[in-house]
């Protein structure tokens, strides 16, 4: 048996990448200048039948980094008060250290070589994660710097929808609009959506690949 054949199924499914669903809430659209306020991550695993399912969850509220810009329109949109003590926010550098530790642990358990961010409109979330990692001077970054899996794109192909709530509805995944724009809630729904699409493709015979 080859070395690759002995790897866990998740390690073989995405070319050695370990998919980590990520969502962020921010104080604007510019990852270099605007504050990261909340981040959540969900890891995945495969069940006995080879279907992808959500596994472990990471969630943290984040203190704005020093001299961070906070756009009033962004705060009005997501409803976050960056300076509310009740948020239980911690410093960005500590959050990113804990996130990386969390991801590396599960990446190693899955025998994967690198983690890849999965997100809805992934470029946005990845830009804020990368900027926060740089500011935090993280030495052991588990994430690929530019590869990402965008559920907006794959939902468009699989379900004909690009908006998260509409894609979830098309997949019969419950979605409470009142909970939207919480990093934790949106990450959990995005994880369910990604698993649904990957598993549906498998059920339709698209995976594993068969070569005539």
Describe this structure in words.
With 212 residues, the protein is α/β, with parallel strands linked by helices. 40% of the residues lie in helices and 21% in strands. It is built from eight helices and five strands, in the order H-H-E-E-E-H-H-E-H-E-H-H-H. The chain has helices at residues 3-6, 9-13, 72-78, 92-109, 122-135, 151-159, 164-170, 183-203, and strands at 17-26, 36-46, 52-61, 114-119, 143-150. It has a five-stranded mixed beta sheet with strand order 3-2-1-4-5, sandwiched between helices. Strand 2 and strand 3 form a beta hairpin. Helix 4 (92-109) packs across helix 5. It is globular, with a radius of gyration of 18 Å. It starts with a helix and ends in a 9-residue tail after the last helix.
Short recap of the structure:
By secondary structure, the chain is an alpha/beta fold.
- Arithmetic mean pLDDT: 95
How widely separated are the two ends?
Answer: 21 Å
Helix content: 40-55%
The shape, in one word, is globular
Whole-angstrom Rg: 18 Å
List the uncertain runs: none
Class by alpha and beta content: alpha/beta
Quaternary: single chain
The biggest sheet amounts to: 5 strands, mixed
The count of DSSP E runs of length 2 or more, i.e. the number of strands, is: 5
Order of helices and strands: HHEEEHHEHEHHH
Number of helices: 8
Relative strand content: 15-25%
Strands ordered across the widest β-sheet? 3-2-1-4-5
């Amino acid at each position: 048996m080859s070395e690759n054949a002995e790897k866990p199924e998740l390690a073989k499914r995405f070319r050695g990448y370990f998919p980590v669903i990520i969502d962020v809430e921010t104080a604007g659209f510019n990852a270099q200048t605007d504050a990261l306020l909340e981040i959540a991550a969900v890891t995945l695993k495969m069940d006995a039948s080879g279907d992808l399912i959500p596994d472990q969850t990471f969630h943290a509220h984040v203190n704005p980094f020093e001299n961070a810009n906070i756009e009033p329109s962004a705060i009005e949109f997501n409803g976050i008060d960056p300076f509310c003590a009740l948020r239980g926010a911690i410093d960005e550098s500590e959050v990113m250290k804990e996130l990386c530790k969390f991801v590396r642990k599960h990446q190693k358990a899955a025998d994967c070589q690198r983690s890849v961010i999965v997100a809805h409109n992934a470029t946005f979330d990845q830009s804020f994660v990368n900027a926060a990692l740089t500011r935090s001077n993280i030495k052991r970054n588990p994430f690929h710097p530019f590869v990402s899996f965008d559920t907006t794109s794959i939902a468009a192909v699989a379900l004909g929808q690009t908006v998260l709530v509409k894609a979830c509805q098309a997949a019969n995944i419950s979605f409470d609009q009142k909970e939207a724009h919480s990093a934790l809630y949106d990450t959990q729904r995005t994880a369910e959506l990604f698993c649904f699409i990957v598993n549906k493709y498998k059920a339709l015979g698209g995976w594993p690949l068969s070569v005539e």
